[in-house]
Amino acid sequence: MTESRFWERAMDRAIVPGYSRIGYRVRRSGFAADPEQAALKGRTVVVTGASSGIGEAAVTGLARLGATVVLVGRDEARAEAAGRRVAELVPGADLAVRRCDVGSLPDVARFAKELRAEQGPPHALVHNAGALPRERAVTAEGHEVCLAVHVLGPHLLTRLLAADAASCARVVWMSSGGMYTQRLPVDDIEYERAPYRPTVAHARTKRMQVVLAELWAEHLGDGGPVVHATHPGWTDTPGLRASMPTFRRLTAPLLRSPEEGADTAVWLCAADEPGRTTGLFWQDRLPRPTHYRATTRESRPDRAWFWRRCQELTHPWAGECGGRGD
């Protein structure tokens, strides 16, 4: 192991150095090359959860690379306000705002159908929409909210927008370092049996995202869109301030900016290097392990069951998706 890799692992295992702005700023000097200035010119990128925080910062970074960016938000007025802020930072940015509640499977199907009719499949899809309810809640379709927003909605959107390998090139899942604490909960994906804890619900579904990114990469295979997951580190966002105020207060001096949190997701959409691999988990432009403890590892049968379950739960809204998501 090289000395640099030793220190990389040490920072990650210690958590605070690796996940905070310290880690980002230490690593920045050794970052893989930035994408070319107009790397995404003429290409459409869809970003969910684009109304603030990391999502808005990702939109800004993608717009600077020349992309046509579709800002997707549950609240259209908030998404439009984010679009105006981005336009001030990136004069001439090509932006479109669309309303979609990613936790609602019928709404995801509607949005995907309309987008394909208007613009065709996007070049890249960034799954950034998030939720952290304080109590267990379910959607109109009866799914636990974190599962619906982080897993089922993005899975369906991938089926509907990333199935056309000739058009869609990149799919990026915005996960979280909290996923390291959890195993794939195939015995209770709806979080019905154990006492509900918001941070656990969040971390469980973030583990599911990482597994799904790997499974999508396997399913699409050679010639399909590149699929990666990433985690942004500890990032100062409106969502963090609202859902974890004590954590935010204690760690405020260490938190990354939204731009730092979004950096790797933007890079994954645009740079050449991540296009040569698929199914990896990234932080700060480097692939990372997906497990640090043996107790969080899932079996191949569990992974296969989880894929089938996601397919079953989204099937009624999948429609025609070119066969690649089936």
Automatic annotation (TrEMBL):
Source organism, top-level taxon: Bacteria
Protein's name in the database: Oxidoreductase
